Prior knowledge:
GO terms for molecular function: alanine-glyoxylate transaminase activity; pyridoxal phosphate binding. Its EC number is 2.6.1.44. Pfam families: Aminotran_3. Keywords: Pyridoxal phosphate. It comes from Tetracentron sinense (Spur-leaf). By secondary structure, this protein is of the alpha/beta class. The protein has two domains: 7-60 and 323-425, Alpha-Beta Complex (Aspartate Aminotransferase, domain 1), CATH 3.90.1150; 65-320, Type I PLP-dependent aspartate aminotransferase-like (Major domain) (Aspartate Aminotransferase, domain 2, 3-Layer(aba) Sandwich), CATH 3.40.640. It is built from 13 helices and 18 strands. It has helices spanning 7-17, 53-56, 65-77, 88-98, 114-129, 146-151, 183-197, 223-233, 286-289, 305-320, 323-344, 373-385, 410-425, and strands at residues 32-36, 39-42, 47-50, 107-111, 134-137, 166-169, 204-207, 210-211, 217-218, 237-241, 266-269, 280-284, 348-354, 357-365, 370-371, 388-389, 391-393, 399-402. The strands form four sheets. It has a seven-stranded mixed sheet with strand order 4-12-11-10-7-5-6, sandwiched between helices. Strands 13, 14, 15, 17 and 18 form a five-stranded antiparallel sheet that branches. β8 and β9 form a beta hairpin. The longest helix is centred in the C-terminal third of the chain and has 22 residues, at 323-344. The protein starts with 6 loop residues before the first helix and ends with a helix. The relative contact order is 0.16. Bound molecules: 4'-deoxy-4'-aminopyridoxal-5'-phosphate (PMP). The site of 4'-deoxy-4'-aminopyridoxal-5'-phosphate has 15 residues, from α5.
Amino acid sequence: PYNGPSAAEILQKRIEFLSPSMFCFYKKPLNVVDGKMQYLFDEDGRRYLDAFGGIATVCCGHCHPDVVEAIVNQTKRLQHSTVLYLHHAIAEFAEALASKMPGDLKVVFFTNSGTEANELAMMIARLYTGYHDIISIRNAYHGNAAGTMGATAQSGWKFNVVQCGVHHALNPDQYRGVFGSDGEKYAKDLQGLIDYGTTGNVAGFIAEAIQGVGGILELAPGYLPAVYGSIKKAGGLCIADEVQCGFARTGSHFWGFEAHGVVPDIVTMAKGIGNGIPIGAVVTTPEIAQVLTQRSYFNTFGGNPVCTAGGHAVLRVIEKEKLQENAFVVGSYLKERLTSLKEKYEIIGDVRGRGLMLGVELVTDRQEKTPAKIETIHVMDQMKENGVLIGKGGFYGNVFRITPPLCFTKEDADFLVDVMDHTMSKM
Length: 427
Ligand code: PMP
């Protein structure tokens, strides 16, 4: 049993002592106390099916025993900084990660977060190419430090940053985008951005294969191969941000970019890599990695023994429990069931995504695609009252984000859809 302070007491402390910018999803904020695989438990021991997984973070399941064991064992033995001495956990996890990558992508820089990974990736691209301009896609989220906030392309996430050399290309958004699903047309526009908006040379391009924060938007087919061609011609490097769509989540592939038949020059990752513990990584080729030897590059905790021991355990669990296959099978089933819900409720404008990275966009008018923002919040709130947690996102805040731990079962999928159905039927 839980003997700690109540939700109300925690909320009071949060208001008084924590940043006023922190937000809660629910009218009655949820006090989570315990986690087990795809379930969370509140202060009264009430169980919730977690279909958001801490924002696509928990890939193996909450408190997965193998991951916990690896972390605890390493913590008991030694935890220290990453850089100064040898440690087997760091080297072994780097080797294991490299074995999951295509091509010559085999040199790993560990960081503490996705923001750090993307900052580093963009710096490497600038150093390697000698150019400065970076292109990211409108509606993207890449982090909250100076450079990554520049690359992030939604006003809601941008403070008063210097927009230092980042251009935002059209979003190849198959639902709302001007060219529909024609990826090559969006890619042509990006070529125009290079031709008219830069010297003709760029340092790089950064994109997620499926925008997470942006509302589970999968890049239109044909887009990435064409864009990678343009970027290469302009002397730049292609960066794949796999912070949300990596680590087997998309089911059909281990990495999101693989569904597009491209091989990036740099891959960044975080969230799922550690099943909830803070670790991120940048993976690139030996040749590109050389640029960081120009000066000292140092990160006290990036890739520390505890986090890398945990990360390595995550990879083993994904393999042992066939979580990629599960994401494919259960994700396809869940998408099918959500799609049939769309036939029942006018308010569902679009169902999309891959594997266990699914989105449901709510609109008050299917023709106009008017965002149903209030209804989105209402359904989320009611679903929580009925024991199911989902996320939301998208530029208008009207897209459900379904990114559960990859151990999610068909029964869980049924429960989620039944609860969504029930909630919508009462509206
Ligand atoms: N890239 C993507 C695609 C993300 O979704 C996020 C976090 N939402 C980040 C980068 C930044 O990661 P972090 O919050 O760990 O800095």
